[in-house]
Design goal:
The protein is an alpha/beta fold. It has helices at about 5-20, 30-35, 50-60, 85-95, 105-120, 135-155, 160-165, 180-190, 235-245, 300-310, 335-370, 390-405, 430-455; strands at about 130-135, 170-175, 200, 220-225, 250-255, 280-285, 295-300, 375, 385-390, 410-415, 420-425. A hairpin with a 2-residue loop joins strand 10 (about 410-415) and strand 11 (about 420-425). The longest helix is centred in the last third of the chain and has 36 residues, at about 335-370. The protein is globular and about 65 Å long. Bound molecules: pyridoxal-5'-phosphate (PLP). Pyridoxal-5'-phosphate binds near residues 76 and 229.
Length: about 450
């Protein structure tokens, strides 16, 4: 098989998969999962035919996917992939550029520079901030919290890049009680023990309560969030950030999906005051519907970031602002390119339209569920609906029954110690008809749960 035939075959298979996604079973059948055993071969001594490898991958791998790249997937606040982002990603793979060193990847560097500028523009964050395209929000938090650590220790007369953490002055890290686990992981890796972290109490919606915010000073890192993972709520930045800045603290914001609210006219106000922070992380692979793994890290303090992340090497002469000096990887793909393609193709209005539609659909879903005796646990300001039935057992059985139809997928969660489920409307293809179908599935599952409980009494 020629290279062209192989790539055309891959393209056809991918196209079939994507075009069937809206009608595919969302969670795979047991049979498809069992069939994965067919991949468990010994490593071949002699090579195998490339066409055969691709055919095997598609025959066994495709049916065992959870169809998150389709309109009926409501899990984990992750969208699918916009066609243009998919196409740009393919071309990027064909180029095979290592985007961290501009000398070796001029077009990737130019495009990521533009994409970074556009991200700051669409999110209305300081235009002179530094951007980098990391794998994930979690990994990006490591680099940007390292910058925070270096800046605060530097002010205390300690050079952490040179002298390390042993014997360093103590920093105080305050974080939302409901901060995402990846921020805690980043802090752990940077030498901040889990038990040293100071939790900022939250209100019943999961927002940091300004009245109970622990004291801050010039050795404090304050971690806040835009978009609580269950409720989609925002910390009250306008009441927290000015206080932190007045105390000389560094403010880091995890906005993995919620930072995109700034790209919508109707919901930008939810993030008021966020622009005063020092660093932010947001994912393209969630709400912007670009492929994994495409996160964007944004930092106001270029000097602290370059000091923390510098990776200049004699054989890889680099600009100070080369991606290798702004993030974790010394080599990486040009993952800013599909983000650039999505931003250019949707434009400011297209991004607003897609995200506002998701938020409107979430409201519609919540009101239909409320009318059918589901309890809605959040105020549904964004694209998340957090719900439960009147007992934990019923909620768990309902999730199993709904997901078991194969028509939709969403995940379990817990809220204030009780079972709940979370529906995230994030996929570019999801429209009103899909929400109608989802409501139908949930109503039928609830009727079954109610019947089972009546019979078992
Ligand atoms: C609020 C929030 N923060 C952080 C993350 C972690 O993002 P990533 O998987 O890109 O590291 C997530 C992922 O679900 C999230 O929802």
């Amino acid at each position: 098989m020629t290279t062209q035939d192989l790539l055309t075959d891959a393209q056809n298979r991918a196209f079939n998969y994507i075009s069937e996604a809206p009608n595919r079973r969302v969670f795979p059948t047991d049979r498809a999962l069992d069939d994965l055993a067919a991949l468990d071969e010994h490593l071949p001594e002699a090579g195998t035919d490339a066409a055969d490898t691709l055919a095997l991958l598609d025959r066994i791998g495709s049916p065992a996917t959870v169809v998150s790249n389709g309109p009926n997937y409501y899990g984990f606040v992750v969208g699918g992939t916009l066609p243009v982002a998919q196409a740009a990603d393919w071309l990027t793979s064909a180029w095979d550029q290592s985007a961290t060193v501009p000398l070796a990847a001029p077009s990737a560097h130019a495009i990521e520079t533009i994409a970074g500028r556009w991200v700051l523009d669409v999110l209305d964050l300081p235009r002179d901030a530094i951007t980098n395209f990391g794998t994930t929000s979690g990994a990006s938090a490591i680099s940007y919290l390292a910058a925070a650590r270096g800046r605060l220790l530097g002010r205390a007369g300690w050079n952490v890049e040179r002298d390390g953490m042993n014997g360093a002055p103590r920093l105080r890290v305050i974080l939302s009680e409901r901060i995402h686990v990846t921020v805690i992981k980043a802090l752990r890796l940077l030498g901040f023990g889990q038990d040293q972290l100071v939790r900022a109490p939250v209100d019943s919606s999961g927002r940091v309560d300004p009245a109970r915010l622990p004291t801050m000073d010039h050795r404090t890192i304050l971690c806040l969030q835009a978009g609580e993972v269950n409720t989609g709520e925002f910390d009250p930045f306008d009441r927290l950030v000015p206080r932190a800045k007045a105390a000389g603290a560094w403010v880091h914001v995890d906005g993995a999906f919620g930072l995109w609210a700034r790209a919508t006219q109707a919901r930008k106000h939810l993030t008021k005051g966020i622009e005063g922070a020092d660093s932010w992380t947001v994912d393209g692979h969630k709400w912007l519907n670009t492929p994994y793994d495409g996160a964007i890290a944004i930092c106001r303090d270029s000097e602290a970031l370059y000091a923390a992340m510098n990776a200049d090497a004699s054989y890889a002469p680099s600009n100070i602002d080369a991606p290798a000096n702004k993030g974790l990887e010394f080599s990486r793909r040009a993952r800013g390119i599909p983000i650039w393609a999505a931003l250019r193709t949707l434009g400011r209005n297209g991004i607003d339209d897609m995200m506002s539609r998701h938020c409107d659909l979430a409201r519609q879903l919540a009101s239909e569920l409320r009318a059918n005796d589901f309890e809605i646990l959040n105020s549904v300001q964004l694209n998340q609906v957090l719900a439960r039935l009147d007992s934990d057992d019923k909620t768990r059985v309902l999730i199993e029954a709904a997901v078991g139809t194969g028509k939709v997928w969403f995940g379990p969660s817990s809220w204030e110690g009780r079972a709940a489920f979370r529906i995230s409307i994030t996929n570019w293809q999801t429209r009103e008809e899909h929400i109608r179908e989802l409501v139908g599935v949930l109503k039928a599952a609830k009727a079954r749960v109610d019947d089972e409980v009546t019979v078992s009494r």
